[in-house]
Design goal:
2 copies of one chain form a homodimer. Helices cover about 35% and strands about 20% of the residues of chain A. By secondary structure, chain A is α/β, with parallel strands linked by helices. Chain A is globular and about 75 Å long. The first copy, chain A, starts with 6 loop residues before the first strand and ends with a strand. The mean pLDDT of chain A is about 95. The interface between A and B is large, with 77 and 77 residues. Strand 20 of chain A pairs parallel with strand 21 of chain B.
Chain lengths: ~525, ~525
């Protein structure tokens, strides 16, 4: 596949900027020859203007028409063939098995949104019919307009140019202007070609999708500040997400930022669970911490348990297994340096004991960091919020609590997370209920006897959580409800049936589920 | 009823602050004798800490138990009797008929939320059962925690201490810390007594409700900055709302601000509508602009029509009727001065013609402003965004467009609004569809052949809209869906049935509507 290194603005390649960067293979630290051009402010403008024009043209497209487009995108991604897998593998080091699965998830996301759109009830129609002294009021969800999306480094498919943010924005009916991640520019350009082909095949306006390259922060700042952008989706670091959030809040006309910024994903293991399943939990934990070289926002980074000989034995076993596991490939130099910095800062705290790892691997010919297990006390973590920082890589921190009260106090002191997990036994159910609800307050998803890595793309999924996990805990970036980030309700008062969208017409021609006079029904009004 | 002038912190009166202010009767400009004490930073702290403690105690209360509490609040408000009406009338000048209706709306809101909670489907349970390679995932909505609420001046009942923000926060299961509006402190204290009585009667934790008085900006700033607050509801001016929004965005841990900040509520009148119904529309428009002395966030402040002799005749008729109408009482001196300032700034634009009014009424013994009608051109309003400023009072601005294209271009240039309205005739439906969708993009509610004042408290209501109408266009501050501002989804993965909330249990013991494996059902899983 012939790549250009250019931006794709409404389907047209453009390389007006003088600044360039290169794709780097994390397995060899070697860079590719093709220069990728950072987008300029003028190119950002053009992309947003094309998105606005596309929205004016497409804002009344039917759900079915949008569903056809989403299916076409999935088909076009598959048509990229194995070139896509090899490109992503070369740019991220994630390996073909993982990437093959991630591609299926990515195309699956587009098709799942397509299926939801064809069913139609996602529009959430609510009707209150005319009554004594009250007008007829009918509301449903509409797209908000052009959306800016920031691709993540760690999922070159499922959270990147063609990831869940883009899929849900397009499914909502919003044009997407995507800032590609500089860690995988070649893969990003391939996706841009797939979107261009899908737009042509389905007769969508060209501005429905643009892809901008950028190795610094300028492109993102221009994009978020642009008055034509109505909402922002972001997956990445706390620092990056907060910068985007702050930029959006500073606008003359602020817009919502849906930033998913990672997490330490606390795991509580009860004494009974340790007594029954120590080996199984240790194996599962090590697999979860090292999977994808630990580069998941749901990586279990904080393990809470009560002190006991069994706990000490368990911690030693996990440490041994982590030590024995090979050091995986990290995505890029920025990730490697960031991890080194975060771990250095943590171990500078005298209350932290490093059980294994804790340092970069000297003279490595690939980007990596030693698998790391640390230990501290509950009082230490309560005394210093910085110990709750995410270490984005194969790193976990045990928090040894003196007793149940110490554990409960520490859970209360946790910051917001994407997930929280508890390992417990069935005969503890009565005792564990309060703790479960405490953990619930700290996360968007609570896992029982499992591990947080692995996020099912289903309707019930909640991939979000209180700050600093996200900037919008009421929303999700994975699963079908991700679409509502990019829609808003609009009500019609006494509007004639002929002018109403089909979803709101008296006869319910779409046959969808609606809340009519406070009763759910898929019949006519 | 014996009032104290104090703050109510978890049911306990407190007056630690040295700063005081007084209740003023806008009909006489006379102030009452009782000093009201601005809350101190320490009092704000105590209120938020009490709210956090209440949340820890009450976060698992059943929907039915919360519904009983909401009904009790409505009963206790009614038990305040006519003292409440007379107090509000004395403090706002809104008159007993309006206030009697507003009280019914206010108690009705609590009972409507109660009914929704008893029905139970508002929890939005979504279940994806265990499948090949997928865990069981179940999500529903949970309360976010303590909420700060800022009462509005113009609805002493329905958008104030016991208004829709408080009702929806309590319905969600969130404790509420309410900053009362200094325009009606006596009325606010009466509500605090009703909440205290309801809490006692239903055995709710005392911190579920606190009421803080404050005549300046300090109390609100302390409240929004407090780490224990999870979300903010605000109704008021753009300046006030933006200040709250900015303060929340600056927090180390930002939180959502649901600010409803007013609007100019554009009304488009077609030539056919004018030809058919000019007199009727003129009467309706004048009634809508002058109702409540124009002090509604849905006041029709911008009227767009195409130039014609009929249009000129219509504008003159509206101007005559406005001129003939008596100058109503404004809520307080701040409102009166703010209106004078806003109108002065607008008429400083040489493209503005004042047709009637435009100035304060000299030597008036009550707070008021002359009923005002202004006129400008479409090109003028497109050239200067400041002409889209809200004039909070009995003021409207006609925008005379040269032709249909000029009108359409002007609608495209509109900022966000709570509502947009179109007056048109049935035989125009084919022509009008595009215009209707254009107006849709600019508002949260689109009204056909009616007027925007009058907001039905029903499930389908959307009282929101793009900035500057609100800071959160995906949400509503009126109607049943207002509750979702103060809830967030939490998912449970593989959690045993016995530990799940009833709404998520296999057997669906609550018998509520759930989305189970992508199908709506009120049966068991």
């Amino acid at each position: 596949m012939q790549l250009t290194g250019q931006n794709y603005i409404a389907g047209v390649t453009s390389a007006e900027g003088a600044e360039t960067f290169f794709s780097v293979n994390p397995r060899s630290k070697e860079r590719d020859d093709l220069p990728y051009h950072n987008a300029t402010a003028a190119e950002v403008d053009r992309a947003v203007e094309a998105a606005a024009a596309a929205f004016a043209e497409a804002r009344n497209y039917s759900s079915t028409r949008i569903a056809d487009f989403l299916d076409e995108i999935a088909d076009q991604i598959e048509a990229l063939g194995d070139d896509l897998l090899h490109s992503a593998d070369r740019e991220t080091g994630l390996g073909l098995p993982r990437l093959t699965g991630e591609r299926a998830r990515t195309t699956g996301q587009f098709r799942a949104f397509g299926a939801m759109l064809r069913e139609g009830s996602y529009l959430r129609p609510i009707i209150n019919s005319e009554a004594a002294g009250q007008p007829s009021i009918r509301q449903m969800q509409f797209p908000v307009g052009p959306v800016a999306i920031f691709a993540a480094s760690n999922f070159p498919f499922a959270f990147a140019v063609a990831g869940g943010d883009t899929a849900s924005a397009l499914a909502a009916g919003c044009p997407a202007v995507v800032k590609a991640h500089p860690g995988h520019p070649a893969t990003s350009e391939m996706f841009a070609l797939a979107f261009k082909a899908a737009i042509a095949a389905q007769g969508f306006p060209a501005g429905a999708f643009s892809m901008l390259q950028g190795s610094g922060i300028d492109v993102g700042q221009w994009l978020v500040a642009h008055d034509g952008i109505e909402a922002v989706g972001f997956t990445g670091s706390l620092r990056g997400g907060r910068a985007i959030y702050d930029a959006a809040a500073r606008r003359p006309r602020p817009i919502p930022v849906y930033a998913e910024m990672g997490s330490v994903n606390p795991v509580v293991i009860t004494q009974a669970a340790l007594a029954q399943r120590a080996d199984e939990i240790a194996d599962g934990l090590v697999a979860s911490v090292t999977m994808g070289t630990g580069q998941f926002c749901t990586n279990p980074g904080l393990i809470l348990l009560q002190d006991s000989p069994a706990a000490q034995h368990f911690i030693a076993a996990v440490s041994d297994k982590m030590s024995a596991a090979p050091a995986g490939v990290l995505l890029n130099e920025t990730i490697a340096r960031g991890l080194e910095g975060a771990v250095s800062q943590t171990i500078a705290n005298p209350e932290i004991n490093v059980l294994t790892g804790g340092e970069a691997i000297a003279d490595s010919d690939y980007f990596c960091f030693s698998n790391t297990v640390m230990q501290t006390s509950a009082s230490a973590i309560r005394a210093d919020d910085r110990l709750q920082v995410e270490h984005f890589g194969p790193v976990t921190l045990f928090v040894v609590c003196e007793d149940a009260d110490d554990l409960r106090a520490t859970v209360d002191a946790l910051e917001g997370n994407l997930t929280s997990t508890i390992h417990a036994e069935a005969d503890e159910l009565d005792d564990i209920s309060d703790l479960l609800h405490q953990l619930r307050e700290k996360a968007g998803r609570v896992i029982w006897n499992g591990f947080p890595t692995g996020v099912a793309v289903v309707h019930a999924m909640q991939h979000g959580g209180p700050y600093p996990a996200t900037t919008a805990p009421g929303t999700t970036s994975v699963g079908m409800n991700a679409i509502y980030r990019f829609m808003r309700p609009i009500a019609f008062q006494n509007v004639p049936d002929a002018l109403l969208p089909d979803a709101l017409k008296d006869g319910n021609p779409l046959g969808i589920m609606r809340l009519v006079d406070d009763v759910y029904t898929d019949g006519a009004q």
